Amino acid sequence: MEVRVGRTSVLFGLLVSFFRRCLFCILSRGPIPSHLAFIMDGNRRFAKKENLETGIGHRAGFTALMSVLKYCCELGVKHVTFYAFSIDNFKRRPDEVQILMDLMVEKAEGLMQQESIVNEYGIRVYFLGNLKLLSEPVQAAAEKVMKATAKNTKCMLLICVAYTSTDEIRRAVQESCKGKIEISNPEAELQGKRCRINLVDVEKHMYMAVAPDPDIMIRTSGETRLSNFLLWQSSYCQLYSPDALWPEIGIWELVWAILSFQRNRFYLDKKKKHF
Which of 134, 86, 28, 131 is nearest to 230 (CA)? Predict the structure, then answer.
């Protein structure tokens, strides 16, 4: 009986994989976005809905992240960004914050496994944000993953942690000013030497400077707020808010987001050129 169930499970998996490839092949007839960004909303609500502990909800959210990342790679999306942890999230209960930090360390180590999706699909991983706010173990785990995947070139996974867009902009402006003012010139410093800051100066110092602006921003749970995420980069991207909680997100939410993008591609490109 167990052998029969096992064979049925394998056959079902093969059929699902075949159907997904066919679906993606049809979808690829239209333009595929270069960059998808996700606000993973609903992990705690999912845990409450299913009567689970908060940590279990976040673990389910990580499983959803891996599935979405796999779908994006199969579709040919080159950049995938996830809003994993806001600076504002440090205001949550200390025990919940610790659960999230421990989960980050655990999953970061898992990404370096030989059989992980990162190595299977040739994904380069970046952790972006004010990483100095993280504990030493989390910083060390993030550095290890970034170093271990530095030579991967097929896809880029951007994990925004200890991040807010206002903090990113503030830092970029500060770094731009530092680059313009000659600190070594005492007279210029005393006279309050003015410096001209251009958009390109600010943009090159953004955390997100490693990737193009997102084409689609997806926030689950039906919420339509950006919550201080990629405010600078999302001026002309497609916004999509499926009702599914983040751990419930599936292939159909992704497909509908891309179909919506394809319908509006001409308008969005026209807006970008005008800007």
Answer: 86
Instruction: Kindly name the residue from 41, 167, 213, 215 that is annotated as catalytic.
Output: 41
**Residue 158 forms beta bridges with which residues?**
81, 126
Q: Is 178 left (phi over 0), alpha (psi -120 to 50) or beta?
A: alpha
Q: Which residues contact 171 (CB under 8 A, 6 or more apart)?
A: 130, 205, 207
Rounded distance between C-alpha atoms, residue 50 and residue 44, angstroms: 10
Model confidence at 13, in pLDDT bands (50, 70, 90)?
low
| Strand-pair partners of 126 | 158
Compute the Cα dihedral for 163, 165, 169, 172 and give only its sign: positive
Please indicate whether residue 41 is annotated as part of the active site: yes
Residue 80 CB partners (closer than 8 Å, separation 6+): 35, 36, 37, 38, 68, 69, 72, 73, 155, 156, 157, 158
d(CA 40, CA 155): 20
pLDDT grade, residue 115 (50/70/90)? confident
pLDDT for the residue numbered 20: 86
pTM: predicted TM-score of the whole model, two decimal places: 0.89
Backbone angles phi, psi at 81, to 5 degrees: -115, 135
| Number of separate helices (H) and strands (E) present in the chain | 10, 6
